[in-house]
Design goal:
- This protein has about 120 residues and is mainly α.
- It folds into two domains: about 5-70, Winged helix-like DNA-binding domain superfamily/Winged helix DNA-binding domain (Arc Repressor Mutant, subunit A), CATH 1.10.10.10; about 85-120.
- About 70% of the residues lie in helices and about 10% in strands.
- Strand 2 and strand 3 (about 65-70) form a beta hairpin.
- Helix 2 packs across helix 4.
Length: about 120
């Protein structure tokens, strides 16, 4: 399965978001996903299997529990693929950052000038 086929599913993306916070038991993942998406435990297990089989998640036994975690390797491949498109959004984001900084500076100047105006100083 192609990485974008895996990531195209909102349930699998949510599971990866959960796992990005740290290792979780399958039961904990299932509990959150069942509540948010209203799907059955077997359906959540199937999504975990897809993530595991495609390499996006790892699983390790811990006694009777199974602990899932993110495997970053496939995400690095996705990042490398996206790299050729960054030129489309990086300059506009840089320009936005510049405008935000300019606005903050202007607000600071106005705030700093206000006490002088109250005292009658130009």
């Amino acid at each position: 399965m192609h990485a974008f086929d895996v990531l195209g599913d909102p349930v699998r993306r949510r599971i990866l978001e959960l796992l990005a916070e740290g290792e979780m038991t399958s039961g904990a993942v299932c509990s959150v996903v069942r509540e948010e998406f209203g799907i059955s435990q077997p359906a959540v297990s199937q999504h975990l299997k897809v993530l595991r089989d495609s390499g996006f998640a790892t699983v390790r036994p811990d006694g009777a529990r199974r602990l899932y975690a993110v495997n970053s390797d496939p995400l690095q491949e996705v990042d490398a693929w996206l790299d050729r498109f960054r030129r489309f959004w990086t300059p506009p984001l840089d320009a936005l950052a510049t405008e935000l900084a300019r606005g903050r500076r202007e607000r600071r100047r106005r705030t700093e000038a206000e006490p002088d105006l109250e005292e009658g100083n130009p």
